[in-house]
Specification:
single chain, 212 residues, mainly alpha, Cytochrome Bc1 Complex, Chain D, domain 2, two-stranded antiparallel sheet, 11 helices, 47% helix
Length: 212
């Protein structure tokens, strides 16, 4: 009985830590990420020219869910899809943990908005705070991204991608965000992205050497 109990406890411990995030392991698995996300202002050129997102400082749960979505095809972007397809669940957990803590600032962002929402955007952004937080940097769930301080052109492309249907190379399948984004006009999306980019946030691009 004692041996059986010991074995069960050992198995439970193994399965509970099978995909535990490990920052140190993650630091050895990001060579394919650094070429884009380790260069400040680096630009992608598909489906249009825009800066690749700041990912350092995002929650590990969000980073893991995004990579998993690229791997499954729920997020369609050829470069990220090919990279994510090469990653195991453990790789994703470790990489997410690494970027979540990379270059973390000593101070948190203000709990309230540094700049009030412009009147013309109040209606469009009213429901966003319920998930992304009143300052757009304190999401209610770890799988939801921080938006404050993100590159404006990336935010614009990301929002528009939720409106896309039936494109094999571009788009994002997310019913909640799809419902939010589809009613928005393109010029409103541009204004939202520009506003969110001006807010103080925790996300950033940390320069990294490709070869360590």
């Amino acid at each position: 009985m004692t041996r059986t109990l010991t074995l069960l406890l050992a198995l439970a411990a193994f399965f509970s830590t099978a995909h535990a995030q490990d920052v140190q392991r993650g630091s050895t698995k990001v060579q394919m990420c650094i070429g884009c996300h380790g260069i400040v202002g680096y630009q992608a050129d598909f489906p249009q020219v825009y800066k690749v997102p700041k990912i350092a400082g995002q929650d590990a749960k969000y980073l893991a869910s995004a990579l998993t979505a690229y791997r499954s095809g729920d997020r369609k972007f050829p470069t990220m899809r090919s990279i994510a397809a090469s990653l195991s669940d453990q790789d994703i957990a470790d990489i997410a943990a690494y970027y979540a803590q990379l270059g973390k600032p000593g101070e948190t962002v203000p709990a309230t908005l540094a700049t009030p929402v412009p009147d013309k955007l109040r209606t469009a952004l009213a429901t966003c705070v319920s998930c992304h937080g009143v300052n757009f940097s304190t999401p209610t769930d770890g799988t939801i991204p921080r938006l404050a301080g993100q590159y404006a052109d990336y935010l614009e492309v990301a929002l528009k991608s939720y409106k896309v249907e039936g494109n094999p190379h571009f788009g994002r399948a997310n019913p909640v965000m799809g419902a939010m984004a589809k009613p928005l006009k393109d010029d409103t999306i541009t204004q939202i992205a520009d506003y969110l980019a001006t807010l103080p946030g925790e996300v950033r691009t940390v320069p990294q050497a490709k070869f360590k």
